[in-house]
Amino acid sequence: MAVTGTLEQIRTKVRKITGMLSVNQLSNDDLDNYINDFYQYDFPAHLKTWNLTTALPPIFGVDDVLIPDQAIYVYDWNTYTNMGPPCYVGGYEIQLFQDQEAFFNIFPTRTRRTQLSTGTGVAGPYGGTITDTPILQQGIFISAVNNAGASLHCTANNAGVLAGDVLAGGTINYQTGVVAGLTWDAGNIAVGEPIWAQSMTYASGRPEAVLFYDGALLFYPVPDIAYEFSCKVNRVPDALEAGDQPMVRDWWNLIAYGASLKIFGDNMDLESYQKIEVLFEKQKRLVERRTLCQLKNQRVATIYTEGVVSQTPFSSTL
Fold it and tell me: Would you list the domain boundaries of the chain?
């Protein structure tokens, strides 16, 4: 039989290594779980291979297009493990930050307080208009104190729907600043008690920087139109099903050894684990060699090799 590295051949090798030749000892479904557990989660952590590095990713779940007036996008951790520079918006390279302090020192985001309304002795509905517009999506915080002295507050999602200590139905229009249908769910607001809104406004444009933090991407400036976004990421391989091969066929031995280690570990068979770990490490070096051979074709980039010395902070204007 030809060596094709299919899931079936990986199963056979794992059964030979572990001695669990019968499905009565280990079912194919459980075995496939061990194989895919290693392939999808452990393998990308062990090796950042050339083949798992890609660009132009749909990291926002659907596509890689920035939406007008939306600054924050959720990163898809289940599809991509790591991201890094270079990052591009509309074909222009932008700066990537991973430190909040460094990002906000350069691109500060401050709130403005506005008295949205005044309590009338009821829970609502209340409304009002914030004049400093447009308002950053998710950049709104409304608060009040009820007649029992408890502090109430709410925020809004990207669609402008209010959520928090409020009943359903409250909204904010980020472009006009109009708040409507605000009804608190925990008591009445005393007559004359102010209802405050803290909001962040912005000037839109083509983003020049992005902050990657807490599982999300924050772009600055806020996009004024739709832009294509791309960056370098390491992706998670797709699960193997019947008849499938790994992304690179010669990974199959490493996957078999890795799945076997997981089985030995769960069975607390440490002696077998240590023996197979030696073979696993050897196979891992063989798999990594392809990436090393590919990377050696290009020297490491520096401020001098890129031919843009005059654009760097290290160059002299004298």
Answer: 7-49+248-291, 55-235
